[in-house]
Amino acid sequence: MLASTFSTFRTARNMFQRRGAFIEVLGLETGRGVPDEVDVLFVVRPVEVHERAAYAIDQFVQRGGKLIVCLDDPDYSAWTGQAAASGDSEASTLSRLLASWGIAVFDTQIWDREWMSPRYAYQMQGAPLWIQSPLVVTVPEEGLEASLPPTQGLKSVQFSWAQPLVPESTLKTPSGVTRTDLVNTSGSAWIYPAGLQLARDPRRVRTQLSDLQRSKKPGQFQLAAVFAGKFPSLWEGASPPKPAEDPFGLGPDLTGEGEPLSRAAESTVVVFGDADWLRDGFPQQEPAYGFIQRGGGLLALNLVDWLTLDEELIGLRSRAPTMRPLRDFVHEEETKLGVFELDPYTTEWERTERNANRDKAQARARRAQWLTMLMPAFGALLIVGLFGILWNVLGARTAASAASAGRIAQGGDRS
Predict the structure, then answer these.
(1) What band does 193 get if pLDDT is binned at 50, 70 and 90?
(2) 273 contacts 71 by C-beta, under 8 angstroms
(3) pLDDT tens-digit profile of 288-318?
(4) Any bridge partners for residue 57, and if so which?
């Protein structure tokens, strides 16, 4: 896994270590190849990938190895909102290799109005805020591909500051390779130029979203896709690239190295326009800012099981009991009415409106809570009542039948 300044992936590493063998692949730029015992290779937020390392990744795929690539730039600090633009450039060898397979991401970010989620925004001066951010997208079942095992049965997966994949209509996949979109945004999404600072002012976020709604038509974009088939090598018919300088002579002996493989075996490459779905969250920001805890961990395990042909585990995991946290009715109603922040309002009128909406949200929450509590009781009473009515009707019919039979018998005796 390759990561830059802010992102950490300790939870994902520990998760895979508990499942089985986890190998941190190092030294690809010196001429080493991906070890043969590796079945699935994760390349997460690649940064300045050397040409020889890209070649090793290519040859791993040519041998039938499965690849998961998470492309994401800039890399944002979840705590401060600052970003580091340190991703792999479009002119890099890895980017050119992926483009030859029909894989690329736009240099923009997704703003999703329908599936936006709360984001924790730390204020240097003042209290931290919760911002309802269109940059944090929680994709529900309807945005997850139902025909592929990794996303079957998933309730939702959260993506943050994601970049959309270039559609197949713009960048064609090579012959012998098929593309299946795995994750989509809602139909109310826009693309916005990527910046190096996340907005901390909730009003600014709302203003930017309003500007987007007025200036552009919304659409649906792809956040992840599966590419399958026999992939062409970028080095087909050419010599392998030279490794990086190795002053200590620790690299492998490349004397007599064979020609690059190309379209040698069937393989699968899964590409995401986001790496945050795998990154660590902050415990103090749960539950709305958990990243890998918000569906990403389950998706990662499903992908590994699927790519290693262990689909039975996916079925077992989807049927496993899941945590059902208590509902926060007040938070739900405040979210519906647009009460997300602690106190970002500056005018008395805005504060009055906020307080009125908060009172309305609390009243609605109490009503929803009572309905939720009483509905099971009403349902049970209704079932008991219906059963009693049915019992009385059947009893009345039985009594009527018995009386009729008695009258017929008496008539027979008189005759």
Answers:
(1) confident
(2) yes
(3) 445 788 889 999 999 999 998 765 555 555 5
(4) none
**Would residue 1 count as lying in a domain?**
no
Residues 315 and 333 in one domain: no
Of the pLDDT bands very low, low, confident and very high (cuts 50, 70, 90), residue 285 is very low
Chosen domain end from 319, 354, 379 = 319
User: What is the Cα–Cα distance from 309 to 311, expressed in whole angstroms?
Assistant: 6
244 with 386, same domain: the answer is no
The whole-number pLDDT of residue 137 equals: 93
> What pLDDT does 17 receive?
83
Q: What is the mean pLDDT of the chain?
A: 80
Residues 308/99, Cβ–Cβ less than 8 Å: no
pTM equals 0.73
Q: Are residues 261 and 400 in the same domain?
A: no
The CA distance from 31 to 51, in Å, is: 10
In three-state form (DSSP H/G/I as H, E/B as E, the rest C), the secondary structure along the chain is CCCCCCCCCHHHHHHHHHHCCCCCCCCHHHCCCCCCCCCEEEEECCCCCCHHHHHHHHHHHHCCCEEEEECCCCEECCCCCEEECCCCCCCCHHHHHHHHCCCCECCEEEEECCCEEEEEECCCCCCCEEEEEEEEEEEEHHHECCCCHHHCCCCEEEEECCCCECCCCCCCCCCCEEEEEEEECCCCEEEEECCCECCCCHHHHHHHHHHHHHHCCCECCEEEEEEEECCCCCCCCCCCCCCCCCCCCCCCCCCCCCCCCCCCCCEEEEEECCCHHHCCCCHHHCCCCCHHHCCHHHHHHHHHHHHCCCHHHHHHHHHCCCCCCCCCHHHHHHHHCCCCCCCCCCCHHHHHHHHHHHHHHHHHHHHHHHHHHHHHHHHHHHHHHHHHHHHHHHHHHHHHHHHHHHHHHHHHHHC
Does the CA dihedral 289-158-205-338 come out positive or negative?
Answer: negative
HSE at residue 371, side-chain half, CA atoms within 13 A, is 7
Is the peptide bond preceding residue 74 cis, with omega within 30 degrees of 0? yes
Inside any domain, residue 235: yes
Instruction: Give the residue numbers spanning the domain of 375.
Output: 326-415
Tokens matching residue 251: 């690299």
pLDDT of residue 320: 44
Where residue 233 falls among pLDDT bands split at 50, 70, 90?
very high
Instruction: Indicate if 259 and 341 belong to the same structural domain.
Output: no
- Both 285 and 387 in one domain: the answer is no
Looking at the 3D structure of the chain, how many domains does it have?
2
